[in-house]
Design goal:
six-stranded mixed β-sheet; alpha/beta; hydroxymethylpyrimidine kinase; UDP-N-acetylmuramoyl-L-alanine:D-glutamate ligase; single chain; 9 strands
């Protein structure tokens, strides 16, 4: 029997289902993976924004990771919203010992503009980026974390996402070991239903890595999954609506 890759998502919960853990579970499942979770925070949010956040204890997050890894096992990990610097530290402690591909989405601000990582938590990002085989900052996150120069200087493999950058074309750049970037371009999809794009892409890449794809293949196919989900958005909500994960084949 062919077993699916075991993908652990370490992220916050989105009550409206469009981003976070919920988007990750949908993505992992649609791509043929087995989804597991270590929830870092519970949010009350919808397409208009985040109205409340409660971070879990760092011990509880660590216990969730331990429970999954010690019994089911883990083939790849996606990290999203962390919730506190203490959680970030515990996650780094656990992942340093796992030895599997880790994709880190350095979530700082939600699609609707809500702050999801305070300065103390962001200060812990460096340790996680050193562990990850890929970090996936968007346009603003890349700038806030020091830009291309900082990432290349520290030898961090990263995907500079262009969805939030200005322009008619979306340009995504994969930079590994300071080599010339691998670049993908595509016409911008004109839609307000972009809630959870970063979560979806990072969990897609993690799932594909868990299935044995190379990093370049995983990014390429993960991008296509996101674009298909954007085109299949069901039209829910009055703000930045969710994508249509369920329609992607």
């Amino acid at each position: 029997m062919n077993q699916p890759p075991r993908i652990l998502s370490i992220a916050g919960s989105d009550s409206s289902g469009g981003a976070g853990i919920q988007a990750d579970i949908k993505t992992i499942t649609m791509l043929g993976g087995f989804a597991m979770t270590a929830i870092t925070a519970i949010t009350a949010q919808n397409t208009r924004g985040v109205t409340a956040v409660t971070a879990l204890s760092a011990d509880m997050v660590g216990a969730q990771i331990d429970a999954c890894a010690s019994d089911i096992g883990v083939d790849a990990v996606k990290i999203g919203m962390l919730g506190s610097p203490q959680i970030a530290g515990v996650v780094a402690d656990r992942l340093e010992k796992l030895g599997v591909p880790v994709v880190f989405d350095p979530v700082m601000i939600s699609t609707a503009g809500s702050v999801l990582a305070d300065e103390a938590t962001v200060q812990q990002f460096g340790r996680l980026m050193a562990i990850a085989c890929l970090t996936t900052p968007n346009f603003d996150e890349l700038a806030a974390l020091g830009g291309d120069e900082a990432f290349v200087g520290r030898g961090i493999p990263y995907l500079a996402k262009g969805g939030d950058a200005p322009g008619e074309m979306v340009v995504d750049r994969l930079i590994v070991d300071g080599r010339d970037p691998v670049v993908w371009t595509g016409s911008r999809i004109d839609t307000r239903h972009t809630h959870g794009t970063g979560c979806t892409l990072s969990s897609a890449i993690a799932t594909l890595l868990g299935k044995g794809a190379t990093l370049e293949e995983a990014v390429r196919d993960g991008r296509e999954f996101v674009r298909a989900a954007l085109l299949a958005a069901p039209g829910f909500g009055a703000g930045h609506g969710p994508m249509g994960h369920q329609a992607v084949r």
